[in-house]
Amino acid sequence: MEEINRTLIDWNPWHDGEFPEELQGIKRKIDLTKYLDFKEIKLIEGARRVGKSTLIYQVIKHLLGKTDKILYVNFEDEILKKYTLSEIYDSFLEIKEIDYLFIDEVQNCKEWASFVKKMYDTRKIKQIYITGSNASLIKQDFATLLTGRTIKIKIKPLTFEEYLRFKNINPLPMSTQKKAKIKQSFSKYLNNGGFPEVAKREYAKREILTNYFEDFLYKDIVTRYNVNAEKIKDLSIYLATNAGKIISHRKLGKTLNLNVMTVQDYINYLKEIYLLKEIYRYDPSLKKQFSSLKKPYFIDTGIVNTISFRFSEDFGRVLENLVFNNLEDAYLFQGKHECDFIIKEGLKIKKAIQVTSSIKNPETRRRELNGLLEAMDKHNLKEGLLLTFDEKDEFKIGKKKVIIKPVWEWLLEKNE
């Protein structure tokens, strides 16, 4: 097994020297070392290039002060893909014992779930961390074998607060000068997105994001599912151009000359690799909810801005996409008017949020308030939030309170 061990040493350079500091990257709010106190398998999910590997390296760096019985296996490697985890593990045991096993991009690995279950159940390995970039493939493998044995951790692109940290900007204390710097940084963040490598090399953002998009499609979907590359690319560009707009899968199929089932399959593939999400109109009936019209949103506004055909009037939808990426359990509200997001907590709708670039135009102000107020009435909410690019206000309409706030300020408050 010389080929395996030679490759593993390349991926584990600390066994042959010092830990390369460049692997450690920049600290984020997410600290995976805290999960070392849990015996369960750590399953770290998220799109490619969001920083999963860097977070793994940070755990390894932390452990190297105590032990070197560590193995990191990256299944993006063409050599390692040829082998099972069992073969790789047995081969490396000839060099060193293993207490801590880190498996990167596990969806490319053969027969991994049964091996991981065996290691977990027999306690031959103290800790196992796994990363994956395809929700469906991971679920297929671990659903029955690893149920009750895992802790799931979802990783997304940088939050705005993390982006500021990458830029060495501490938002507190908030001075007038600091506020101007934060607003300038927010414009860049909205335009460039939150992939860590883009934040570090914004001068090369278009090249990086174009390469990411092609990797998403060709490495994660086209080669794996044998789909029509041109068609799924056209669909992705159309969805990015119309992010935040209500769409019908049937009409989308007619527009792109695709069968509606093909459209649904392609969209599901985009969801499985964490590139895309859709939200539904809220309805207590799940059947009606899932059969209703939908709104697509992308994981990152940098991707949206890079691949879509956008115009100045679409700026508000990019802002809306960013807000969506910072929400949980969000739905679309549609009545006589529309409200971008209503947020479910437990069994009830607890928040209503409207997003627009500006409400200086009287017609825009009236439209956005009508949708927000109707959603508040429908769900008995006393307070509603209207997020803009840079406007702030607070007032009452009858007994209902409306808070107008810049998105950048809302993002920082959410991450406090």
Question: What do you see in this structure?
Answer:
The chain is α/β, with parallel strands linked by helices and 416 residues long. The protein has helices at residues 2-11, 52-63, 85-92, 112-122, 135-142, 160-166, 176-192, 196-200, 205-225, 229-241, 249-256, 260-272, 286-291, 301-307, 315-324, 362-378, 407-414, and strands at residues 41-45, 70-74, 100-104, 127-132, 150-154, 276-280, 294-298, 330-334, 338-345, 348-355, 383-388, 393-397, 400-406. It has a 6-stranded mixed beta sheet. Strand 3 (100-104), helix 4 and strand 4 form a beta-alpha-beta unit. Helix 10 crosses helix 14 and helix 11 (249-256) packs across helix 12 (260-272).
